[in-house]
Amino acid sequence: MSATGPVMVTDCSYDAETGMVSFVTNHLSKFAIGYISAAGSATDWYAEYLDYLSARGILDPQTFSPNSNITRAEFVTILTAINGADLSGYTSASFNDVSSSDAYFGAVEWAADNSIILGYDDGSFKPNDSITRQDICTILMRYADLVDFILPQKVEATSFTDQADIASYADDAVSGMQQAGILDGFENGSFLPTNNTTQAQAAKIFTVLMQLMIEY
Fold this sequence. Notes:
Mean pLDDT: 89
Low-confidence stretches: 1-6
Order of helices and strands: EEHHHHHH
Shape: globular
Oligomer: single chain
Structural class: mainly alpha
Largest sheet: 2 strands, antiparallel
Distance between the termini: 26 Å
Radius of gyration: 18 Å
Number of strands: 2
């Protein structure tokens, strides 16, 4: 419990077969198990992922727009929520298109401070641009390195039909995410590295990552 009250543990899961709750923490404290009802509709393919993240206070189902492309700033903001990062100490901007008045300011600064994002050569971050699939892989790989999480190799490595289109900076990250089962290619064998990702698809990506971090 913090000085301001209870804090939700995001890295947790429930095993219905064993009746056990597993969670990851970096400190000793008093813990309580609670239940938050499902946020999505059972008819939506992404419901289980939205439920998983909203129950942990990571996504707000009221503002969740499943078919909208997730932006670079939104993606980083969710990552900081998963990490439980303290964003209060940041006062100056690292990028020329990010202001301290922006809602995502602290999240972007935390990610820059931890070398999870590097920005562009012109000094910008392009927070409102849709994030590409190869950049998702790159950011998640850097995050895994930050928290000392070694990605499991659950799936055999794949050479995509558009492998040559994957940027050199993202090549290892794409391979790592593919083998971990976090991001896969498409039925035609392509990866489409510069394609965008919807909020619903991102919810699945984050959920799979979090569950892997608990499992391994």
